[in-house]
Automatic annotation (TrEMBL):
Transmembrane segments: none annotated. This is Aminotransferase. CDD domains: AAT_like (cd00609). The keyword Oxidoreductase does not apply. It comes from Rhodoblastus sphagnicola. It is an enzyme of class 2 (transferase). Residues 30-390 form the Aminotransferase class I/classII large domain. GO terms for cellular component: cytosol.
Length: 395
């Protein structure tokens, strides 16, 4: 039977491929800076105490594993909408649908864009999270890029704005709400206002991907971009993920929100998204969303989450500072302040591809070829070695 005889083998996912190489590496002091997960001081992915408590309470009153509604748990969707939008818009016009992580939210969103503007092109930042291009292309869109990371290693805001000015009406602009992946470079509030003005004036559809809310300055400040767009009444798409902020990666906890023009429109859009969910996975998983909703709905657990999220954010910032200082000690003629100015889990370290390869092969420090490193994988034990190795390959 020759059914699969001609199947082409695709290249490995570059990030997962790097982790496989890291796992196979036997060097005792090896460090994996390739992954996109937060790790604590001991290099472990944390189980947040607020989540653990919520899960213990859930276990104590365990019930049968029935189906979750197609659009997810209503109480989960309500707390997510409140968290993301607060009072920036009329929530009666917002559809929020539980999704399988941020990726699942992007997929639901992509299919919903196809319902309203099937011929739109989708504009992503250059560079962006690799899956953005793959996901929107697979959904049938032509994906274009707008300038983002400048040749000088800083945000190319002029280039970004100039490109928005020529994008045709109806096209979709995908923006990172905060903690841009991979560069760590975020827009200032004033720059967000300028972008929102152009996007609205030109009738582009904003799609804000929100995978790291809480990791830049805190939940409220990090929601600025989403709430700015929401405050003029929309329309807009927002994909949201709890993977990082509740450390619930494997539970697939996310949501898609769409801001519509009226409660009637909301009902019609909801019916479309339910159709998309139904034919894709029928209904979402229960455990993670139930735990997330329990944390957000309980004032004590919610306070604890704020503290735990704050501690993750502060630890990342401390590692940025330490890395920048330690690199500056070893290479005093270079400026590393950009590491401290970037937000979120990642730093575009300004390592070139040959340097990233050398770092890996000679020092067993695994960074992406683009130079992206996960700052959240640094800790007091590995940071001296990492700084020493980066300084050596940058020489
Ligand atoms: N968007 C961006 C920008 C991301 O970095 C990620 C996660 N790496 C996602 C979406 C997807 O998140 P999730 O793991 O919840 O699917």
């Amino acid at each position: 039977n020759a059914l699969f005889a001609q199947v082409e083998e695709l290249p490995r996912d570059p990030i997962l491929g790097l982790t496989e190489a890291y796992v196979a590496d036997k060097t005792p002091h090896r460090v994996n800076l390739g992954v996109g997960v937060y790790q604590d001081e001991n290099g472990k992915v944390p189980l947040l105490a607020c989540v653990k408590q919520a899960e213990e309470a859930m276990l104590a009153k365990a019930g049968p594993h029935t189906y979750v509604p197609i659009d997810g748990y209503a109480h989960y969707n309500a707390v997510v909408a409140q968290l993301v939008f607060a009072d920036s818009c009329d929530l009666a016009k917002v559809v929020t649908v539980q999704a399988l992580g941020g990726t699942g939210a992007l997929k639901l969103g992509a299919e919903m864009v196809k319902v309203v503007t099937p011929n739109a092109r989708v504009w992503i930042s250059d560079p962006s999270w690799e899956n953005h291009r793959a996901l929107f292309s697979a959904a049938g869109f032509t994906v274009e890029t707008y300038p983002y990371y400048g040749a000088d290693g800083e945000l190319d805001f002029a280039g970004l704005l100039a490109t928005l000015e020529i994008i045709p009406a109806g096209d979709v602009v995908l923006l990172h709400a905060c903690c841009h992946n991979p560069t760590g470079l975020d827009l200032s509030q004033d720059q967000w206002r300028q972008i929102a003005r152009v996007v609205r004036a030109r009738n582009l559809t904003p799609f804000l991907d929100t995978a790291y809310m809480g990791f830049a300055e805190g939940l409220e400040t990090d929601a600025f971009s989403v709430r700015l767009f929401a405050s003029d009444g929309g329309p807009m798409f927002v994909s949201f993920s709890f993977s990082k902020s509740l450390s619930l990666y494997g539970e697939r906890v996310g949501a898609l929100s769409v801001l519509t023009a009226s409660a009637q429109e909301r009902a019609r859009v909801l019916s479309q998204i339910k159709r998309i969910a139904r034919i894709t996975y029928s209904s979402p998983p229960s455990h993670g969303a139930a735990a997330a909703a329990a944390v957000l709905a309980d004032p004590a657990l919610r306070r604890q989450w704020d503290e735990e999220l704050g501690a993750m954010r502060v630890r990342i910032k401390k590692m940025r500072r330490l890395l920048a200082d330690k690199l500056a000690e070893r290479a005093p003629d270079r400026d590393f302040s950009y590491i401290v100015r970037q937000n979120g889990m990642f730093s575009y370290s300004r390592l070139t591809k040959p340097q990233a390869i050398l770092l890996r092969e000679k020092y067993a420090v695994y960074a992406l070829d683009s130079g992206r490193i996960c700052v959240a994988a640094l800790n007091e034990k590995n940071i001296d070695y990492v700084a020493e190795s980066i300084a050596k390959v940058m020489q």
